[in-house]
Specification:
The structure is a homodimer. Chain A is mainly alpha-helical. Chain A has two domains: 5-97; 125-499, Neurolysin, domain 3 (Orthogonal Bundle). In chain A, 63% of the residues lie in helices and 3% in strands. The first copy, chain A, contains 20 helices and three strands. Chain A has a three-stranded mixed β-sheet, with helices on both faces. The longest helix of chain A has 29 residues, at 5-33. The A-B interface holds A 16-17, 19-20, 22-23, 26-27, 30, 34-39, 41-43, 45-46, 48-50, 53, 57, 223-228, 230, 242-243 and B 16-17, 19-20, 22-23, 26-27, 30, 34-39, 41-43, 45-46, 48-50, 53, 57, 223-228, 230, 242-243.
């Protein structure tokens, strides 16, 4: 095409609105990192006001005219322009179906619900959060209906929101296949006589952990001149490549927690920083979806960060940082602790093998919440039953049961599946990389990560949202998305360690 | 009145827009406290986008209708309602005269200029900042003209912007009177054989300073459940009483710096937290102006914080926090260091006596920049000459000369005078308090600050912007604003110490 005036106007408006969105995201980041305890109500009002503005700007009538004009003449357009138009159309069509009042009410509810959840989780009292969750679920269904989804497919809408093109049925199928292979593998590992000891870490001062994780994240390529890392209750990564905000948390008796959570968040950060920065705010500068995003964080955390090569390089640095604390811990013990597999109730503390069960659990419950088969008031019991059935253990209380995660308190339904899909994509991408560079792990042992990062930049990051999750996976790996890569990877990594 | 529907609509809209304004302020706070060095350009775009939105929301046509309707029937209104209408009218009338394009361009320029200034100051290279300052001055004049001020009174507009009702001529008069009294007083002090030694402080770890300043600010009444303190290059206070963000900076060889800057910022914070919170966003919940704001920070920093009583209470705590560092420093030496008067080139490091000269210097230069008598390119030399003449010393370089302050880089002209006016108001308020509570300093020696704070809350903070600066000063102190209180206070505090 003709990058004509209308197209330029469209992009310029999308990019201006994107600046409002990252302002909104900064307020959310600040809410988790800095907000004084008594300032929640004010922040809720700020977020509501800003979300209403963003919605209004996103539904300007001239968008309809521009899109119509551009679509009419788009036959000869490049795939890039077509992607920009397609995403702009999708977002516009959805946004205009929501009322400003709805958007503002939802932002207010989410902010209130977040604080109610944090309080409920602290006190172990589900009743403090349940009324908020009830309202959020209702609004989530209302949102799906407004956008045009039938009552039966409301959950599809929320999955599609995070990963365009995916449906609950697709997730159901792929999770079933995964489960079939995964359960016996987990059985084999946890029944093994090999029992890594993760309680060997004691007294690792925060300063050392902080120094080390900055060294590692910088070495793998995170650019701290346009990003930072702070502390929050739950680690996350927000912002975009122009200003990437990661968080972690420190436990002096568990240095692997801050370390791996920050390698994970760095993976997210590397993806954001690798997206074409000049296209921020359009499909060309946006992540493909949540599953694709998670594939990048998982790949760095697991395929790279738990590999033998990686630790050949970093173990000496770790020992230099904590000479006394590691004096009585052997290399073997350390590496096994890094690759420990245990059945535990908390998702974020779980290993990469059993992690997938935690996601399947949440997916099953979300499906039932949306179908009406499960009432919000019955969630704690349903969670515990499902945990017993799927993971094989029963949480002792709601704080380590259905209140453990923040997602629902932010109104994010249909988000959890992307974590497990991300694991699958990560493994599949990993084997694609190994086909090109069979010796890639040798790089890690030398502290070199550029060859991997450049490959990901070129083949994955630079594509933005030109394709949807399934298309991009196919393009990058040459295969359809399936659990095969993940199962193969888990077997190759864990069976030798646990035999 | 009739708190009728139109009035409620007006207030509700003002409060919604105020939420957007504090979102904007948070982005600015974050820019100074957290922003990665390479993210400045993105933040500039975010601020520009948001400022344009705020401007657009503030100039909605229905405001005109609402104001007209309410003004027509406002004769029987309470003074509170009248104040809300008056301020809403003033802000609306000014806002509609500025174009959205102008507002966005100005926000972009300010953000760029801030980074250019920081760079220029660091490198001691005025040429890096001069082109930005030139543009900012031009925009400041353009703004005054758009709002309806004549070319000759452009500087009046900027003074009035910070302190409604004040003019350059008024400031000129009052500064002249002050100077006449102040210069011989300073001569007397600096010629005194008493020479406090401020270089006695060595090796005060940041952690101790942080702990201490939190203790002090909390004790004088700052509410940390709706506020926090962080670190920035220049200490400041932003946000409002719902979420008050103070900053300070630490120097291990100058613990008084973080201490007094944080007592100062706490004074600002106490004012914000003392404004009627239910009226945030209207004249009833807004500070009277910058001079009034500064009077509150100055009163706590100086009249309270440098008093004998205050240190009778805090000296033991200070010694407990830093036993070794203070072992060889006597009480007398400590108190004199706290009340040291020295002629130095840097405003923010100067004492409360000579500080006023730094402001007079800036006022003189701003006047000339606005009248055209002084060209931006000649500023460094003019600054040095004026410093020589007014303060009696010549800065060695631009970093300790005309680049020392951040204000102009943010486009804030006419702001500096409020600092000195604030000193005058603080002293005048102080004597008003002493008339009611002659024994107030005895409270401080017991670590009690509630009687003073409550008096300020009732007589000053709770009034919001119902009156302008001069009116409020008259109401609170029973006198017209004059330099008399400040001169009396400085004489009473410093002459006994320096004779």
């Amino acid at each position: 095409m003709k990058l004509n005036k209308t197209y330029r106007n469209l992009v310029s408006e999308l990019q201006r609105i994107d600046c409002l969105k990252t302002a909104f995201e900064l307020l959310e980041w600040d809410e988790q990192v800095n907000l004084p305890p008594g300032s929640g109500e004010r922040r809720a009002r700020e977020l509501a006001a800003l979300s209403e503005i963003i919605h209004r700007e996103s539904t300007q009538e001239r968008f309809a005219d521009w899109l119509e004009e551009l679509e009419a003449g788009s036959n000869g357009d490049s795939i890039e322009c077509q992607a920009v138009l397609r995403e702009a159309r999708r977002n516009y069509d959805r946004a205009v179906k929501l009322s400003p009042e709805f958007v503002s009410r939802q932002a207010t509810l989410n902010s209130h619900a977040y604080h109610a959840w944090a309080d409920a989780r602290k006190k172990g009292d589900y009743a403090l959060f349940a009324p908020f969750l009830q309202k959020q679920l209702e609004m989530a269904k209302e949102e799906a209906a407004m956008v045009g989804y039938s009552e039966e497919s409301a959950y599809d809408y929320h999955i599609d929101k995070h990963d365009p093109g995916l449906t609950a049925a697709f997730v159901d199928d792929i999770f079933s296949s995964l489960k079939t292979e995964l359960l016996p593998l987990i059985r084999q590992i946890v029944d093994s006589p090999v029992k890594p000891d993760t309680s060997i870490f004691k007294g690792f001062p925060r300063e050392g952990q902080e120094k080390l994780l900055k060294q590692i994240s910088e070495k793998i390529g995170f650019d701290y001149t346009r990003g930072r890392i702070d502390t929050s209750v739950h680690p996350f990564c927000s912002g975009n490549g122009a200003d990437t905000r990661m968080t972690t948390r420190y436990d002096i008796n568990n240095p692997l927690n801050s370390l791996f959570s920050s390698i994970h968040e760095s993976g997210h950060g590397l993806y954001e920083q690798g997206l074409p920065q000049e296209h921020l705010g359009t499909a060309l500068g946006e992540a493909v979806g949540m599953a694709g995003h998670e594939s990048q964080s998982r790949l760095w955390e697991n395929q790279v960060g738990r590999s033998r090569g990686f630790w050949d390089y970093w173990e000496p640095v770790l020992r230099e940082t904590f000479p006394d604390q590691l004096a009585n811990i052997s290399s073997g013990e350390l590496f096994m602790a890094i690759n420990a597999v245990n059945l535990i109730p908390i998702r974020v503390d779980s290993d990469e093998v059993t992690y997938n069960l935690h996601i399947i659990l949440r997916f099953e419950l979300e499906k039932k919440l949306f179908s009406g088969e499960l009432a919000v008031k019955d969630l704690p019991e349903a969670w515990n039953d499902a945990s017993q059935e799927i993971i094989g253990l029963r949480p002792r209380n709601v704080s380590e049961g259905c209140l453990q995660d923040t997602h629902w308190s932010g109104g994010a339904f249909g988000y959890f599946p992307s974590y497990c899909l991300g694991n699958m994509i990560a493994a599949q991408v990993w084997y694609a990389v190994k086909e090109v560079f069979p010796d890639i792990e040798e790089d890690f042992a030398k502290g070199e990560f550029g060859r991997l990062l450049n490959w990901l930049r070129e083949n994955f990051h630079s594509k933005g949202r030109q394709y949807n999750t399934l298309e991009l996976t196919r393009k990058v790996t040459g295969r359809e998305l399936s659990p095969d890569g993940l199962i193969r990877y888990l077997k190759e990594r864990y069976l030798p360690l646990y035999s």
